[in-house]
Specification:
Elements: E1 3-9, E2 13-14, E3 20-21, H1 25-44, E4 54-59, E5 69-75
Antiparallel strand pairs: 1-2, 1-3, 1-4, 4-5
Protein name: DUF6894 domain-containing protein
Pfam family, one: DUF6894
InterPro entries: DUF6894
């Protein structure tokens, strides 16, 4: 089963070195939404308000800047 990494980029990087083994794109999307919601709720809700958008990059590498990107989830907020 392939391993996928869920990196958070919001002006600073929260790098996922371990990743998760998931069977398909549907499972990856579900995990990304749940993880993003948990991170924003528990730790980083204020991080979506600065100028830079909050972004989750899902790829097949423990480095957010290498490997194949499967998708990005971007959250922005404006007042």
């Amino acid at each position: 089963m392939p391993r996928f990494h869920f990196h958070i980029l919001d002006g600073k990087a929260l790098t996922d070195h371990e990743g998760l083994e998931l069977p398909d794109i549907a499972a990856i999307r579900c995990e990304a939404i749940q993880f993003a919601g948990a991170v924003l709720r528990d730790h980083r809700a204020d991080d979506i308000w600065p100028v830079e958008p909050w972004q989750m990059v899902v790829n097949d590498s423990p480095n957010p800047n290498t490997g194949r990107i499967h998708f990005k989830l971007t959250v922005t907020a404006t007042e």
